[in-house]
Amino acid sequence: MTAEASSGRLLLVGPAATAMADRLEASGYATLTWDRPAAAAAVASGVLPADLLAIVLSAAAIDLAAPLRSLADQEPGGGLSLLLEVEDDSIAARSLCLEAGASDFWLRSAPPSDLLRRLRLHRRGSARATAPPRLLEEGDLRLDPVQQRVWRGRREVQLTAREYALLLLLLEHRGQTVSRDEILSQVWGQTEEAGGGNVIEVYIRYLRLKLEADGERRLIHTVRGRGYGLRHTPF
User: Fold this and answer.
1) Same domain, residue pair 86 and 170
2) Angle at 212 between CA 206 and CA 217, to 5 degrees
3) Where are the alpha helices (DSSP H) in 85-221?
4) Tens digit of pLDDT for each residue in 94-106?
């Protein structure tokens, strides 16, 4: 088995897709091959195999893309990707994929490594989408990126949207120095040259006042000449 190997199978539908079975299996994937009658029967039954990783569909079976997409969306998490064969990498081909209900396209004329690369990207995206959200923490500071809520110890900290965006950036890079240019770019969408002025200092002060309102230890530190960083001890 190679690094591609994973539990679950790839569903290959139609002649061009099933022709890729040997190459995909050599890369560690288990495959399930369907001809048109088998795919049509599954669509009619409204049931897909429970262990699928993704669906690879031939252009000859494009009419099955939409119903298969509908079944895939009913899977837990709706995380199944559907890759449709197209003749060329063009805007028209991309539009065809979207209209048909596919997640992406693949080229039969391209090296098999192109399909493998696309499958890897979709699997990683699906894993990120289904992974439980994680709190960002530094000491007694916690940030929930889903609910966009912040706590210092047991105390919830009320932040404006801009303050939250700045704190999120610093927490995502906790223990590191974040430059002024990066802060302006990520939080304000501008650069120092565009006239950032002292807006960063103002919002750093706002954050410190709110995070240290009950006399808590300072977490946001100025790294002179470089930017700002968030951690329990000074830089």
Assistant:
1) no
2) 130
3) 91-100, 112-130, 161-172, 180-183, 199-211
4) 778 778 888 888 8
Query: Which of 190, 184, 138 minimizes the C-alpha distance to 165?
Result: 184
**Residue 142: what residue type?**
R
Could you read off the pLDDT of 146-188 as tens digits, one per residue?
778 899 999 999 999 899 999 999 999 999 999 999 999 888 8
59, 16 Cβ separation under 8 angstroms = yes
C-alpha 76 chain-centroid distance: 17
Which CATH number does the domain housing residue 25 bear?
A: 3.40.50.2300
The continuous run of DSSP H or E covering 70 comes out as: helix 65-73
In this prediction the pTM is 0.52
> For the chain, where are the E strands, in sequence order?
9-13, 30-34, 52-57, 81-86, 104-107, 136-138, 141-144, 149-152, 155-157, 177-179, 220-223, 227-230
Count of domains in the chain?
2
Q: 171 near 136, Cβ under 8 Å?
A: yes
61 lies in which domain range?
9-130
| pLDDT in the model for residue 155 | 93
Q: Which two tokens stand for residue 76?
A: 């837990």
Query: For 55-93, what is each residue's pLDDT tens digit?
Result: 999 999 899 998 988 888 776 555 678 999 988 877 777
